[in-house]
Design a protein that fits this description.
The chain has 127 residues and is mainly beta. Helices cover 0% and strands 46% of the residues. It contains no helices and eleven strands. It is globular.
């Protein structure tokens, strides 16, 4: 079992940058696929980015590709989402998610495949 705690959200102007972090408990962080999802008010939770256990393979939603970068530091049990060129439509609660059993990379984008979730951190982008 793993517990996830996000941090680093906040208010930023359009075009600005933020980095959100996801700290995980436990000694097996490197066994988990990590993902970032977001949920805007009144909308469904959507995939943002995911990273493989080793950190080598990454996936992005088309809406953030080229602006956001997901990474992980297995020595620090932490995953990151660097967000550049933020837009008002990026405003949402950002959640990190983890799963130990995803084996097919085609499932990295599927929120239903992730067992563990953090409590979320609010990111607000003003125009």
């Amino acid at each position: 079992q793993v517990q996830l705690v996000e941090s680093g959200g906040g208010l930023v102007q359009s075009g600005g940058s933020l980095r959100v972090s996801c700290a995980a408990s436990g000694r097996t962080f490197s066994s988990y696929v990590m993902g970032w999802f977001r949920q805007a008010s009144g909308k469904e939770r959507e995939f943002v980015a995911a990273v493989s256990r080793s950190g080598v393979v990454t996936y992005y939603a088309d809406s953030v590709k080229g602006r956001f970068t997901i990474s992980r530091d297995n020595a620090k049990n932490t995953a990151y989402l660097q967000m550049n060129g933020l837009k008002p439509e990026d405003t949402a609660v950002y959640y990190c998610a983890a799963d130990r059993w995803i084996t097919d990379s085609s499932y990295y984008t599927d929120r239903n495949k992730y067992k563990y979730w953090g409590q979320g951190t609010q990111v607000t982008v003003s125009s």
